[in-house]
């Protein structure tokens, strides 16, 4: 493997990297526009996801708690004028019936910002990034990782299980998720319930939560307690990821049975 070093970039450089590598943030994500006038300022980047939702991206090249409110202001503006933006960017086939999403992208996030996000009833997603320069190559390579937002302790809103499955745009992933959920219910038949809440499916054994399922467009997240009883979230993109997490979930379930 080639050696590399991390490179600090300006916000303009980060915008350009996202324009050229949007799909590395989330599969199927596409660049739409940048520095668009909105809410008394200019939003950094506008994208569209694989489900044809507009994505407002607020960027920072340093840790900055103020980006959350700034991003919400832009989110509010775009959401309030979604039909106009769908017409403006008609070549991207934006669906104005889909909820706008808000991405915050920065090198790191404070625990304060992360805790605030869990109480905001909006589809907010956090991504950290590193920019790498490999020996012998001129181009920078951005690496993005999703930062999980903790689940608030109380149920916010009930939906249907099918709503979560239908949020997934990849039919093969949807089929696999349905099979996984059926398998989990059979770990202890009659004792396990799958309860739909906003943005997640809560998994309980004898009424006690042991895991959550979070749908994404082309993958999903599973959250559960590790062997130290620390709440941990895992991104599931393939069968190997799932195979690693299932024993952790089963162990968490068994501890709640005792």
Helix and strand layout, with pairings?
Elements: E1 4-6, H1 11-21, E2 30-38, E3 41-48, E4 54-59, H2 67-80, H3 82-88, E5 101-106, H4 111-117, E6 124-134, E7 141-147, H5 161-167, H6 171-185, E8 192-197, E9 200-205, E10 208-215, E11 220-225, E12 231-236, H7 239-257
Parallel strand pairs: 4-5, 5-6
Antiparallel strand pairs: 1-6, 2-3, 3-4, 6-7, 8-9, 9-10, 10-11, 11-12
Number of strands: 12
Q: How many helical elements?
A: 7
Order of helices and strands: EHEEEHHEHEEHHEEEEEH
User: Could you describe the largest sheet, including whether it forms a barrel?
Assistant: 7 strands, mixed
What is the percent of helical residues? 25-40%
What is the distance, rounded to the nearest whole angstrom, between the alpha carbons of the first and last residues?
A: 47 Å
Give the overall average pLDDT: 92
Shape label: globular
Task: Please state roughly what percent of the residues sit in beta strands, choosing from under 5%, 5-15%, 15-25%, 25-35%, 35-45% or over 45%.
Answer: 25-35%
CATH architecture of the largest domain: 3-Layer(aba) Sandwich
**Rg result:** 19 Å
* CATH topology title of the largest domain: Trna Endonuclease, Chain: A, domain 1
Could you characterize the architecture of this molecule?
The protein is an alpha+beta fold. It folds into two domains: 4-147, Trna Endonuclease, Chain: A, domain 1, CATH 3.40.1350; 161-257, Aspartate Aminotransferase, domain 1. 31% of the residues lie in helices and 32% in strands. The strands form two sheets. Strands 1, 2, 3, 4, 5, 6 and 7 form a seven-stranded mixed beta sheet that branches. The chain has a five-stranded antiparallel beta sheet with strand order 8-9-10-11-12. Strand 9 and strand 10 form a beta hairpin. The model has no long low-confidence stretch (mean pLDDT 92).
